[in-house]
Amino acid sequence: MCCGVMSVDLTKNDKIELTIEALTSEGSGVGRYNGLAVFVRGTVPQDKIIAHIIKRSKNYAIGIIDKIISPSPERIKSDCPYAMKCGGCSMRHMTYEEELRYKKCRVQDALNRIGHLDIEVDEIIGADQLTHYRNKAQYPVEISDGELFAGFYAYKSHRIIPCTDCRLQPAEFEKGILAFSKWIEAENVTSYSEQTGKGLLRHIYFRKGFATGEVMACAVINGNNIPNSELLVSLLKENIDGLVSVAVNINRDNTNVILGKDTHIIWGTKYIKDKLLGKTFLISPNSFYQVNHDQCEKLYARAKEYARLTGNETVLDLYCGVGTIGLTMADEVKQLVGIEIVPQAIENAKENAGINHINNAQFICADAPKGAELLKQQGINPDVIILDPPRKGCDASLFDTVEQLCPERIVYVSCDSATLARDLAILRQKRYETKKVTAVDMFPRTPHVEVCVQLQLIR
Question: I need a surface site. Which of 24, 74, 306, 368 has the fewest CB within 10 A?
Answer without folding.
Answer: 24
